[in-house]
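G., the chain you wanted modeled:
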Amino acid sequence: MFETLVHADSALARHRNGPLVEERARYLRHCAALGGTLESQRIRARCILWVAERMSPQDHGSVDGSRLHEIAYGLASVATPAMAATVVNYARPWLKYLGWWPEPVQCIPFASALDDFVAWMRDERGLTLCTVEQWRHKVATFLRWCSDTNRDLAKLLPQDIDAYFVTYGAHRWSRLSAGHMAAMLRVFLRRAASTGACSATLADSIQRRRRYALDSLPYALSWDDVRRVIASVGTETERDIRDRAILLLLAVYGLRSGEVAALQLDQIDRVAGRLHIWRLKRRQPQVYPLVSSVAQALGRYIDDARPSVAHAEVFIRTLAPRTPISTAAIYRTVSRSTTRRRFQSAGPAPAPPRGWRSCRRPV
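Predicted structure as tokens:
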């Protein structure tokens, strides 16, 4: 492993004879399998060797953040704070890979009520895993707020719910998001009341927010603007080729970000001209005709730009580790700042929306 990264005899001997040689070599092989570039592997090897040489025997097995900070910043052999930060950024994943980095345990107050709610959503209601995780996160945030403000779930009053919306949600949620939060809390508190965890009348005290006609419809770009954005994406780099295919899938088929991120190679039938999409909400596949412009963009990415990895998903990160992109990465691709930047390169245009799902015309 080390001979592929360094060529000088003295440097190679230092890597091979340094402490924790097997642990370092195993991690470097792991990073190489994930698509680490040669240059990043060289920096990674130097950083973890530097840390290994300065670790004491007592550090083997457990190195927390303060200890790693002491190793990186507390010794005069690091020339600059920037270099010390680089050492920390490369050493932390290595320690996590070895299992030597103690992860902080997040204590969620009223955990029994939360666990019961999650099990009920999953086993009795049969909600999708995505919905279960989203609602679990929102309920956990609410329970942490209750604990931080010295409120007991069993003794909550309607005015406590009002305080949550006023003090916590006022600067975080839109009118629509607040309505969703109210609906979610009603469901949670109704379930918690059925197990005796809170008052039976608390859920009914949460009133729906006023809704206006067409209030939930997002602002949408005109189709000409959508075409301008897609046309402004370059076709030279791997990232641009990938992003163009993503934008076309979103604009032409109106797919959700999770559906694009989960798209697999065997769902694209270029011979028959069909696209098989697993719809997350409906929990069943749908078959679409493969529009020529989308087929061309997908073919260009898969044949010319997509890295050779073992993952079945179509869209892969452009940086190591070369794993499938996440739903959040899909959002960032078409987020307000990215879209505005592409608009500016294509000419003046109005501010972009948060989503394009209303655009379903072929390009």
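Residues 2-98 form one domain.

Shout if anything looks off.
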